[in-house]
User: Fold this.
Amino acid sequence: MSVVTLKINDIDVAVEAGTTLLDAAKEAGVRIPTLCHLDGVSDVGACRLCLVQIEGIPKLLPACVTEATEGMNVTTETPELQEYRRMVVEMLFAEGNHVCAVCVANEHCELQDVAIEVGMDHTRFTYRFPEREVDISHPQFGIDHNRCILCTRCVRVCDEIEGAHVWDVSGRGPAAKVITGLNQPWGDVDACTACGKCVDACPTGSIFRKGTTVAEIDRDRGKLDFLVTAREEKKWTR
Amino acid sequence: MAKTVVIDPVTRIEGHAKISIFLNDAGDVDDARFHVVEFRGFEKFCEGRPMFEMAGITARICGICPVSHLLASAKTGDKILAVQVPPAGEKLRRLMNLAQITQSHALSFFHLSSPDFLLGWDSDPAKRNVFGLMAADPELARAGIRLRQFGQTIIELLGAKKIHAAWAVPGGVRSPLSEEGRQWIVDRLPESRQTIETALGLFKQLIDDTLKSEIDIFGKFDSLFMSLVAPDGTWEHYGGHIRFVDSQGNIVADGLREEDYQDFLGEAVERWSYLKFPYYKPMGYPDGMYRVGPLARLNVCDRMGTPDADRELQEFRDRAGGRCATSSFMYHYARLIEILAAIERIEQYMEDPDLLSPRCRSKADINALEGVGVSEAPRGTLFHHYNVDENGSIKKVNLIIATGQNNLAMNETVKQIAQHYIHTNEIPEGMLNRVEAGIRNFDPCLSCSTHAVGQMPLHVQLLSSDRQVLDEVYRE
Ligand code: SF4
Ligand code: FES
Assistant:
């Protein structure tokens, strides 16, 4: 096992080769905001919230998909990075229809948390008010595309942990959306095992249990962690 | 030459209210119109939403009475789930509504209206508010503020901070009252009762004396009255059925079910208003004008159902000189009696172990595709009507709110006040204060009417028949 040493915000850290900068930062006690990252599933670098600055590299790189290498000098907080992160969150708000006041995830929402973290109090972009659907054809769950930020956590959790691969992404640009099955109503998708992992994975109120009312969402994130450690480390207790 | 007086709100208020008063050639008031510019897109944007979100969404329509929408929406949801709400769930919902009635009526009386009564209609507007009241009668002002807080705290104890988060849900409520919560209520009850008894005593003195003339001028006319009553005719705020009485107190219709509201309520549309004008269908428009709210509930019921409130109801009817009080000014009086009734009922509930029971919510799937729910909001009967598809997705929403139902009566009241005060080409001093007070009888849920500090911003224009401005008064 080879070890690499690097500096994150002037803190020296030593991590196993192949560790991502996000994990290395955690090791160093440095918090980097994320949205598309979910412990236990692969990273895709979709949200760009975890951008960091690396000495000698002209562009900003996402920490969740960048490997730590020997001698790296990483900075996670600069005025430029703060501005970028804020902009990313503002764009997410302007892109969908996020009405926190009546959302099932109000006060239990990672998008909200991150908005607060990056100091966003309004968006400088024009709201797009896209026309998007709500699918509540599944007997237990519903998806409200208005609140989806296309992080693909549902896609990965369903594929990599549950092994059902109900979710996917279809379309491009503004037409991109997560779909169930072959873009069928969720209730018609036989592959769905109704395990509810996508509810636990979704950072917003996009995927919810039916019957959930405003601000009532209840996720069991611990379950995902448990399943991952159970498999990787054969620890079957919570 | 016929003239028109227009009283317009200035732009900084949100709940736009505009008043036009039409003069005939003799310079006397012919008609009055109280225009409410209502946001009507609301029903549209609920379409496609999951039914379970409706309680939370509708609670956001109105920052003033979210509890009323929560309850009406939850009751509509009960019908769509086709479930029986557990007894604890129903009692907890009732407790919240009683608390809502208390806090809302206390706001209306102590904060908004009593400065008018106690300091005089024409006293310095800068002082004619709750702060002025505090200076003039600190005891009363403080007690009033605490009474409102009593109601608000019960709501918080039940729904936590999350009143907008829909504590009342289809099938019941999310959580019971805690023992500490119950204890808090028990401790504050005696003080609250004391306050309402003092206020009632004071108000009765005033209407027997200095406010006597207001009773005849501020909206005294015949109309129907509608509200919920219990199966045995007792005052209701949550369940029971709908009853109409006339000005003499004769029962016009009884045992009406909310599901059939379209059969007995018509909604007239007038070219000059965005608000629809509900009327009692069998009598046609506008003869079917009816009033809702505290005055209606007292006129409609046979008894209050609690000893002290019943005694007060008897006195109220004696003062009104009959079974029904027809002056809209009596809304204030009715509000105080309702607070007393609410407090008495809360007292009775405190002994009930059900309030602490966790079995307060029935869960079910969509079992009916349509539901109508009704409850008595502080301002009057509130209907929610939803159609859903088999997944529970909203197809159609119709809401009938209290302020809309009192629309015709508010017009009538403004007209009566205008007739009394306007006799020339000029807008007389003090007229605006009277019109404002006339509207406040109904405690309408417009932000302008609930300006706790200061007065309603108004703009009055006196126009001739060829739309020439003869006189103009701005009041910010
Ligand atoms: S539904 Fe939720 S988890 Fe899936 S992509 Fe959208 S926001 Fe992410
Ligand atoms: S968390 Fe790294 S790009 Fe989203």
